[in-house]
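Hey all, quick one. A colleague (J.T.) asked me to put the zinc ion job into the tracker so the inputs and the structure tokens live in one place instead of scattered across chat threads. No bug as far as I know, just bookkeeping. Sequence used:
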Amino acid sequence: MKIYNTLSKRKEEFVPVEPGKVKMYVCGPTVYNFIHIGNARPMIVFDTVRRYFEYKGYEVNYVSNFTDVDDKIIKKAIEEGVDADTISKRYIAECKKDMEGMNIKPATKNPLATEEICGMLEMIGTLIEKGYAYPAADGTVYFRVRKFKDYGKLSHKNLDDLQSGFREIKVTGEEGKEDPNDFVLWKPKKEGEPFWESPWCEGRPGWHIECSVMAKRYLGDEIDIHAGGEDLIFPHHENEIAQSEAANGVTFAKYWMHNAFLNIDNKKMSKSLGNFFTVREISEKYDLQVLRFFMLSAHYRSPLNFSAELMEASRNGLERILTGVEKLKDLEKKAEGTVLTVQEEENKKKAEDLVAKYEAAMEDDFNTADAISAIFELVKLSNSTASENSTAAYVKWMKAEIERLCDVMGIITEKKEEILDSEIEDMIAQRQAARKAKNFALADEIRGKLLEQGIILEDTREGVKWKRA
Ligand code: AMP
Ligand code: ZN
């Protein structure tokens, strides 16, 4: 299995630290709002990577954190007049709902930064002891970047080039730094912020230290895969490597995987441009399975553009697969025969070639785009070869194969009948007409039908409003 490693900038054969096991750490979101569809990309991509390892028989230990102490969380808490914990707990719960909608397997562990402070104090202590970190007069603890010889190995940056990027050696509030490249491990509390006791000052951890500590605690000093979006390569992951390798004395992660960004209408997603969607907003228009399928329609290292057209294409593509499986389910009910015919044996061989094609795509740095093409070809073969004359053995085999491949993609092959906005509006108009004609039985029947499809109506003074349950 080949994986592109950001560290070596090339595809490498996957060799696990421990045979048969994969230890994976994926940087999770900062929880101060609903997650956006950009955050969903690494979640979907690396869940699919995990699923493929499991398909190959590996036991995967998948750890992904929630950053629950951060400036943005504190700002939001102040705005709402609640404590930071209320904000982070709320959005962790909402994030988990979205993840369920996208059929992302629960992680083996979702550690929270605020519950791992002890480990952070310990690692910072070790780094100071070994000379890799130092406390400044105000109690801020910095990592001494120049002491770590391999600094820059992941982002392929040179320290001297980085240094020339700094115009002023001392930035306000960072006067205690020995070198402008040094980064914060621990910082003093500010008024109204959450804080913890420490040997250096009452304060809170820097962002990078949390991942080094959680990876160590739940996966060990040496892990197989560390992953996240490409914006994390520098400084976050570069700093994680420096902290972990300086403290533990061994290579931190063997393979570093990074997904490219998701853009909207070919522009960077940003609140100011107004081209910003949360997963929750998308779930009001589409089944989140469609979002998942859309994300996997491109290779994870290629930038991906979100647009209504591409989502429609994904909806249609997914529909083709689900219809193919439905057909097999119908045939399965009536079919008989446990021995494949000669023709079916031949078709099975063709199907096996497509399964091999699928696996080859996935084993070439998780090329989900090509893997999905192989699923399409398999469905096409199934549609043209499975019929009422097929044996039960053939139909069952074909269905199981398609479902097995779909499962790795996280596609649920159970078809959900999705009702469109326009159909809902039509039914509401019919209900209004029935009410006007005093046919309340019909009006209630229409309301009931909509409810069965998960559509809730609300009669308000401004008219009928509806929402999806
Ligand atoms: P954050 O909450 O900003 O730390 O982001 C959580 C994860 O989402 C990180 O792995 C980011 O790299 C990733 N991410 C954020 N925005 C995007 C985007 N537009 N496209 C792809 N990944 C993103
Ligand atoms: Zn991280």
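Adding what we noticed when we looked at it: The pocket of adenosine monophosphate (ligand 1) is lined by residues 27, 29-30, 38-39, 41-42, 228-229, 231-232, 259, 261-262, 269 (CB under 6 Å). The mean pLDDT is 94.
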